[in-house]
Amino acid sequence: MKAKPADYGKNLRVNRSAKHGRGVYATAPIPRAAKVIEYVGKLVPVKDSDGIAEKQMTRAGKSGTGHVYLFTLNKRYDIDGNVPWNKARLINHSCDPNCEAQIIQGRIWVTAKRKIAAGEELTYDYGFNMDSWQEHVCRCGTAKCLGYIVSASRRGALARVLKKKQTQDANPVMR
Ligand SMILES: [Zn+2]
Asked: So what's the pLDDT on residue 175?
């Protein structure tokens, strides 16, 4: 296998995004499978994590900005990436992302799912479950998008919910 530079963090730039607030963009091409940027933050014992996640989720829903920045690192610790020195926290969600988050040797890395061109915005799947999906509108604009941020594994479930909702809206029930 061809050796790849360990980290493409220097080839990234933060800018306004059409998807949501700010985004992170590649300034040079990034090869498939490369480590793009490490997702850093505070180590949080797993037992404290739910409380933090709940607060972040509420804030995200209310303001329409931000999201949950917690990543499962191992059985004992999560990483709370909601810190200013974590540039990776600004990466937006996409329903057809070009990056993914992976644990590599005890660290969380955002890696390239495919070749990324210079100027492309980096995205990954936030992996949200179906809790309060209505509050997390997605503007990724990809063909796979259902308009809300849920993980790829839940998109089928969301599609069913949306279909049902549509049918209900089309056939109002008399009261
Ligand atoms: Zn989307």
From this structure: 62
Contact of 25 with 31, CB cutoff 8 Å? no
Is 9-170 in CATH node 2.40.50.140?
A: no
- pTM given for the model: 0.83
Q: Give pLDDT < 70 ranges for the chain.
A: 1-7, 60-67, 172-175
| CB within 8 Å of 114: residues ≥ 6 apart | 32, 98
Tokens 């020195």 — which residue? 85
First to last CA, the chain: 66
Ligand 1 centroid to Cα of residue 169, in Å, is 22
Instruction: Specify the pLDDT at position 65.
Output: 57
Whether the CB-CB separation of 69 and 56 falls below 8 Å is answered with yes
- Per-residue pLDDT reduced to its tens digit, 70-81: 888 899 999 999
* Separation of CA 157 and ligand 1 centre (Å): 15
What DSSP designation does 121 have? B
Distance from C-alpha of 108 to C-alpha of 87, rounded to nearest angstrom: 13
Span from the CA of 57 to the centroid of ligand 1 (angstroms): 18
Give CA–CA dist 152/144, Å, rounded: 9
Instruction: DSSP letter for 173, please.
Output: P
Which protein residues have a CB closer than 5 Å to ligand 1 (ion)?
95, 138, 140, 145
Phi/psi at 21 (5° precision): 50, -125
